[in-house]
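Record format v2
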Amino acid sequence: MGNELLNGRTANTNAQWLCGEIYSLGGLVKRVMTVPDDLQEIETTLRETLLRRPRWVITTGGLGPTYDDMTLDGVAAALGRGLSEDKAAREMILKRLAGYKVQGRAQPLDFTPERAKMARIPVGSKPLSNSAGTAPGVLVELEGTYVACLPGVPSEMKAIFQEHLAPMMAGNRLKTVTVDTEVRGVPEAALAPTLAALAKKYPGIYVKSHPKGFEGVSRVLVQLTGRGEEGVEDVESARKELAVVLEGMNAAYEMRTIQDNQ
Amino acid sequence: MGNELLNGRTANTNAQWLCGEIYSLGGLVKRVMTVPDDLQEIETTLRETLLRRPRWVITTGGLGPTYDDMTLDGVAAALGRGLSEDKAAREMILKRLAGYKVQGRAQPLDFTPERAKMARIPVGSKPLSNSAGTAPGVLVELEGTYVACLPGVPSEMKAIFQEHLAPMMAGNRLKTVTVDTEVRGVPEAALAPTLAALAKKYPGIYVKSHPKGFEGVSRVLVQLTGRGEEGVEDVESARKELAVVLEGMNAAYEMRTIQDNQ
């Protein structure tokens, strides 16, 4: 969340990174939402999201010391809980502050009210240690849903995700294979019946075409993705069938196979 | 919308571009949502969004000829309407097809069922001509809300936005100024009281700090943004006050002013 994402200044690279990690762990993100630094918006969005009863809700941003860092207030409000200073969170922050070798013009690293703010987390939640920065992450377990709050600084978000959340999600890490086929000289609409047939024949795989512009010759990127043993086999079958069709069209194409978790 | 955004393969650059354009036109995006290529998800998300009664809802992606292009089905379902072939949309598509100078190995550009699909739009909506590709955009006017559907190909999305939507949004294009201040050697928590005071004193401006990592010396980017005459003046006042505080801290800092629509 954050205004800088909604005025176009900043790309939401955190969302893309998390989607990729969760996908490679065998999960699938169902929805990404970007909301402003506004308490009411954060609370409403989280309430709406929890109604969908997802396994995980992950927030990024808004855990820092400044007045516009209000994620935990919004989460607490959505859960109908208060915030209170957590002893373990306080220890984590003090440990980080003690470890900083401050150079140059830095101010003293006291446990100021702004830093104490980072130790105030929703009642019943637990802090997640942050090996890359000061603000701890937060994890709340509800009935069937985990709500995890991560910092917005990418290095800190990634560190906490990898250390604390990925191990909870793992165990179903699946082999994934994607075949990217770049087709030249065949409009997307002419490929559509073939792709629809492949998607129907192999319902477990993900078939997607991306038109890549039309400058005299149309270019289309076709992606076939499968996960797990069967998905990987189906992608290989679909790849061969697609190649036969493209040969029949006298199309120019290149195929590239990308494997994850093999 | 699109699965490729939710598995981390593709960055949502369309959302970032639209947020920036709308911001520079004097608007503010309140929420960005990314959903999968799934009819039910598209319908539900649009229904939820319309309940918030925004001035504009803009979708990107899913207007093409293939089976996974289902945005208009989802929009029609959310509005409780059907789809029907629109004569003007059909004309637009035929005109594009006739204009293509097909080279190389291209297939004939007939008005196939896949292309006819792109002319089927929600009853009561109007097509928006696409100067950069085949699929027309779509505009529906509800009570107080415009729903616009744009293609996912960035060049086409941008062309339709600039040609059709930007003129409808303009008229309140505001001067905008942003002052970026990079501060070195002062932790974000030490800046927090000053930023909170500035945000309180100048409620019309947007004050945000971004920690930029801590490697011996902390770096924080502070952004002050204002829009309109008053906002631009307030940013200048806040900039001077921030400079005084930073001088008092003996902080190393650099300020950069970015102006739009001056």
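Chain A is about 40% helix and 25% strand.
The mean pLDDT of chain A is 88.
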